[in-house]
Amino acid sequence: MTQQTVYAHVDGPLGEMLLVGRVAEGGAGVTELASLSLPGQKGAATVQDGWRRAPEAFEEITAQLAEYFAGRRDRFDISYAAGGTDFQRRVWRALEDIPYGSTVSYGDIARRVGSSGAGVRAVGTAIGRNPLLVVRPCHRVVGADGSLRGYAAGLERKERLLGLEGAHV
After folding, report:
1. How far apart are CA 91 and CA 117, in angstroms?
2. Burial label, 135 (beta-carbon count in 10 A; 0-12, 13-18, 19+)
């Protein structure tokens, strides 16, 4: 079965999000979310030739995002496209285990994926390449001293997401 890449722009409290996903030919909804980007994000996805604009394909994901931003959802039930290297996927899976409203340090993530010491920098790089902002909660990772560090879409947005979740930083 062949898949087609589709996209939609969705308004949200952090700005207009770009959602990119894959649908089975003739399918109605996204089978895998490949990217969720925010305006001004470093490394953000951009619409490519051959992609089809299909806001209707993102109805379920859009509904879950609206619930999250309204404080009625603390976890997403979305299928993600694999993407990334094996190391990045391990780091990204570790992000998904951080509870709503909590924070952990980059060092904590490094230990969880078996990459301590100098590996903290590699973990930070992998987190910075997370293509699924908000739904894969890289905003929950902070410096060892609890300070806000690094967020591809800007520290102000990271702070807003953590505030929405009631996380104390």
Report:
1. 15
2. buried
pLDDT tens column, 56-112: 999 999 999 999 999 999 999 999 887 899 999 999 999 999 999 999 999 999 999
Task: Please report the pLDDT score of residue 119 as a whole number.
Answer: 83
Residues 66, 59: Cα–Cα separation, whole Å: 10
Query: Is residue 157 flagged as an active site residue?
Result: no
Task: Look up the CATH number of domain 3-69.
Answer: 3.30.160
| Structural contact between residues 139 and 145, judged by C-beta atoms closer than 8 angstroms | no
Tell me how long the chain is.
169
| Domain 86-165 CATH assignment equals 1.10.10.10 | yes
Q: Which listed residue (30, 109, 138, 161) is catalytic?
A: 138
User: Which tokens belong to 129?
Assistant: 């390449």
Query: Whole-model pTM?
Result: 0.91
